[in-house]
């Protein structure tokens, strides 16, 4: 294990290099996976090509072993959502979710119900998106009920399916790749598999595009074995994933969103809300301008103070001396701060 004496952080906040110590030799080496300045060095699985494993003892910005994408920690491997599936009426999807919660291969990711918006068309959705970081992505389409094929048509419990089992998943896969490319992210190898969680069979469908890529009820007990086989069948050979695709998928899936407003924006919005007049208030304001004495009544929060301030400002801008009286000290201070300009005073 090589100890780090320091860690260099580039302008993007990513680890770029470190001082690694082997015996009495100290040298700066690129961090595994960081872009090489010469382009000649390549790294794989955290192994430096000449120094081997490099252990992190101290980080300047990030906790140990934390990867960051868009300033958020990357999700840990596992099934998402972690405790229960997203809302669905499909009992078949629930069965697969339960099986994945027990049998997802170690180090893999799985997301239930990932939806993508297609501009100008209906949204497209994947029942499950499963990722092996070292190989790529498997789109798993779920079809419940007793599934059978007759004369080239597909049926569930005797009712003809509107789409063939792989059609929706194939459409989603193409849109996912298009979306990643539009974000300048190198797409990973992708493939499609189908699961019939309510159907027992010993011989898989013979349709060419489904050969070896169909899971049945018997596979749910052994998904940690069946999924790698399906991944091998579905993914193109000879390609390895690279780039930030694995960080991008959770962003598309939307694992967490907590609405926040920065204090500056919140203050501006509150100020505008206090000073904005609606159509009814404008009508009252016009009546004030046309009459010497007017009594305005209304419940708390209906805008009487805002109306009084607007009237006082108009009179002051016309050259008249205006005295605005207010009962409470806090509101008097706020009105004095908002009034500004000449010819307008606020008293308590």
Question: What does the model show?
Answer:
This protein has 348 residues and is an alpha/beta fold. The protein has three domains: 3-66, no CATH class; 72-253, Trna Endonuclease, Chain: A, domain 1 (3-Layer(aba) Sandwich); 263-347, no CATH class. 29% of the residues lie in helices and 24% in strands. The chain has eight helices and 18 strands. A six-stranded mixed β-sheet has the order 8-9-10-11-15-16, with helices on both faces. The protein has a three-stranded antiparallel β-sheet with strand order 1-2-3, with no helix packed on it. A three-stranded antiparallel β-sheet has the order 12-13-14, with no helix packed on it. Strand 13 and strand 14 form a beta hairpin. The longest helix has 16 residues, at 167-182. The termini are far apart. The model is unreliable at 1-16 and 36-70 (pLDDT under 50).
Strand-helix topology:
Elements: E1 3-9, E2 15-22, E3 25-30, E4 47-48, E5 52-53, E6 68-69, E7 72-73, E8 78-80, H1 91-103, E9 109-116, E10 124-132, E11 136-142, E12 147-150, E13 153-156, E14 159-160, H2 167-182, E15 190-196, E16 214-216, H3 223-234, H4 245-253, H5 263-275, H6 279-290, H7 304-317, E17 322-325, H8 329-339, E18 344-347
Parallel strand pairs: 8-9, 11-15, 15-16, 17-18
Antiparallel strand pairs: 1-2, 2-3, 4-5, 6-7, 9-10, 10-11, 12-13, 13-14
Low confidence ranges? 1-16, 36-70
Strand fraction equals 15-25%
Order of helices and strands: EEEEEEEEHEEEEEEHEEHHHHHEHE
Number of domains: 3
The count of helical stretches stands at: 8
Annotated CATH architecture of the largest domain = 3-Layer(aba) Sandwich
Kindly identify the CATH topology of the largest domain: Trna Endonuclease, Chain: A, domain 1
CA radius of gyration is: 32 Å
Distance between the termini: 73 Å
Major beta sheet, specifics?
6 strands, mixed
Overall mean pLDDT stands at 76
The helix content is: 25-40%
Number of strands: 18
What does the overall shape look like?
elongated
Output the strand order for the largest sheet.
8-9-10-11-15-16
- Class by SSE composition: alpha/beta
| CATH class identity of the largest domain | Alpha Beta
């Amino acid at each position: 294990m090589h100890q780090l004496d320091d860690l260099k952080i580039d302008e993007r906040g990513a680890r770029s290099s470190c001082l690694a110590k082997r015996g009495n030799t100290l040298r700066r080496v690129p961090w595994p996976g960081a872009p090489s300045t010469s382009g000649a060095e390549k790294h794989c699985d955290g192994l430096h090509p000449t120094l081997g494993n490099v252990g992190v003892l101290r980080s300047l910005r990030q906790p140990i072993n934390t990867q960051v994408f868009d300033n958020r920690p990357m999700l840990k491997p596992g099934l998402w959502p972690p405790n229960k599936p997203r809302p669905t009426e499909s009992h078949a999807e629930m069965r697969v979710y339960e099986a994945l919660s027990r049998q997802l291969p170690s180090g893999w990711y799985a997301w239930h119900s990932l939806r993508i918006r297609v501009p100008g068309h209906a949204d497209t959705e994947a029942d499950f998106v499963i990722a092996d970081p070292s190989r790529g992505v498997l789109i798993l389409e779920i079809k419940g009920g007793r599934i059978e094929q007759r004369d080239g048509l597909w049926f569930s419990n005797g009712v003809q399916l509107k789409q063939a089992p792989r059609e929706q998943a194939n459409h989603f896969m193409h849109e996912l790749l298009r979306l990643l490319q539009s974000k300048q992210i190198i797409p990973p190898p992708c493939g499609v598999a189908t699961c019939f969680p309510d159907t027992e069979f010993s011989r898989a469908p013979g349709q060419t595009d489904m050969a070896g890529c169909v899971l049945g009820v018997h596979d749910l007990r052994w998904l940690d074995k069946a999924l790698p086989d399906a991944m091998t069948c579905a993914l193109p050979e000879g390609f390895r994933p690279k780039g930030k695709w694995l960080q991008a998928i959770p962003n598309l899936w939307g694992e967490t969103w907590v609405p926040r407003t920065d204090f500056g924006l919140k203050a501006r919005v509150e100020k505008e809300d206090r000073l904005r007049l609606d159509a009814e208030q404008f009508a009252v304001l016009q009546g004030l301008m046309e009459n010497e004495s007017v009594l305005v009544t209304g419940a708390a929060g209906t805008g009487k103070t805002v109306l009084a301030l607007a009237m006082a400002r108009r009179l002051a801008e016309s050259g008249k001396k205006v005295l605005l009286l207010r009962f409470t000290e806090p509101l008097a201070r706020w009105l004095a701060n908002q009034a500004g300009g000449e010819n307008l005073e606020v008293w308590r």
